[in-house]
Amino acid sequence: MTSSRRSGAGAFAVMVVVSLAILLPFYLILVFSLQSHADLGLSGLIPRPSNLTLQNFADANTSMHLLSSLLNSAIVSVAAVAVTLAVGLPAGYALAELDFRGRGAVFGSLLTIMTVPFILLFIPLYGVIVKTFGLGDTYLGMILPYAVNPVAVFLFRQFFRGVPASLFEAARIDGASELRILRSVAIPLAKPAILAATLITFIVPYNDFLWPFLANKNPDLQPLSIALANFISNSRYTAIDNPFGTSLVGALVLVVPVVLLLVLFRRRLMQVSLSGALKD
Known about the structure:
0% strand
């Protein structure tokens, strides 16, 4: 066997091991969520028909209100994506293509905001959104902190920096306004960046726990992450036969939409221009 074949076989073996390590947690969640009685030993890794049930899904839907909680998570996340795209696309285009006074300062401020951990902003956000404006226990109060994702603005700016300037100049020579150029030229070209920004923006509020926990105490509006946490903290007081399996059902329902989105659009994400990300 030549050295190139050995190296190829070794790389393949490494990819197999890494893939199994990534898939193992999902397999465990699925198997344990289907058990009628929790079996956390090695024997539980192989499903036994006598220990399989769908009752955990029914218990999870009853105790966590899966559909309504999942809908609340989707409302907050989709609204955050919509506002981010509506604001981030023009902002990214302006930072990349328009020459205006203070552009460098605005971009520097954007980079600074990106370096600040979101958790450090919780106290001032809570004071402004909940205490000052009284938006606690509302969808709007949960959406506002995610309304404009600075990472998405940065992504759009870098993408447009990688687009040949001659495309925009040709449109300007033809008499198109900047708004027309954005709508007819920039946005169609930016579809890969829009998809990447959509996924990045969607995942953050969808998975977040702390801000919805602070800003909302209304059980009818709680997202799935909060419903799952509440069930786990109170599971010892429930009459459910397998609370561990029921909690894993909630975790499974929470993680599946994000995984499906990443799997379905993984190839489109690769189209995001890396050369644009390396430009000044």
